[in-house]
Amino acid sequence: MSGLEPLRTSLLVCACGAAMLGGCATSNPFVTASVDPASPIAGEVAAKARASRDYPTFADIPSVPNDVRPLPAFGRAATELQLAGVELVRDTAPGTWTLTSTEAFAGRARDIAGPETTGPESTTAATEAFAKAQRARATPPPPPR
Predict the structure, then answer these.
(1) End-to-end alpha-carbon separation of the chain, Å?
(2) Under the phi-then-psi rule, with left for phi > 0, alpha for psi from -120 to 50, and beta for the rest, what region is 114?
(3) What's the CA gap between 64 and 30, in Å, rounded?
(4) Which of 142, 123, 140 lies closest to 131 in space, CA to CA?
(5) Which of 60, 76, 82, 141 could pair with 56 in a Cys bridge, judged by C-beta atoms 3.0 to 4.6 Å apart?
(6) How many CB atoms lie within 10 A of CB 73?
(7) What's residue 88's pLDDT?
(8) Which residues, 6+ apart, have CB-to-CB distance to 131 below 8 Å?
(9) Vertex 27, ends 21 and 30: CA angle to 5°?
(10) Are 131 and 122 in contact (CB under 8 A)?
(11) What is the 3-state secondary structure (H, E, C) of 43-90?
């Protein structure tokens, strides 16, 4: 490999790059693009292209609202959330709780629920009549002959 080889490679790269950039500079699709006059939106496209518009400036950016908490408060809230997460993990770690006094808990739940029924029988005649009618309706039709 001779000492001129890197120079030739560099010149070739520069020439290819200039040719590619030159091709881009000669045709701008945004300037030369045209709309088919038979298109149903041709009139609307032409009107939008001719319309002069005011573009927003940096002065149009609204000011910061007054009811937003300051930035340091966001950091404090994030820290509080992380500490609460650590506390939750610590309080629910394996071996930190057991199921004890379940009979007392179940007894309180039974007291709140009210008296127990003694069986599946109903105590009202209206309920029994409804159940009988539903059983009659649920009887399958006779087999085809």
Answers:
(1) 100
(2) left
(3) 37
(4) 123
(5) 60
(6) 10
(7) 95
(8) 122
(9) 115
(10) yes
(11) HHHHHHHHCCCCCCCHHHCCCCCCCCCCHHHHHHHHHHHHHHHHHHHH
> What is the model's pTM?
0.31
Q: Which two tokens stand for residue 117?
A: 């029924």
How many Cβ atoms are within 10 Å of 133's Cβ, its own excluded?
Answer: 10
C-alpha–C-alpha distance, residues 48 and 50, integer Å: 6
Q: What is the pLDDT of residues 136-145, one digit of tens each?
A: 888 788 888 8
CB count within 10 Å of CB 122 equals 13
**b vs e for 46-65, b when ≥16 Cβ sit within 10 Å of the residue's Cβ?**
eeeeeeeeeeeeeeeeeeee
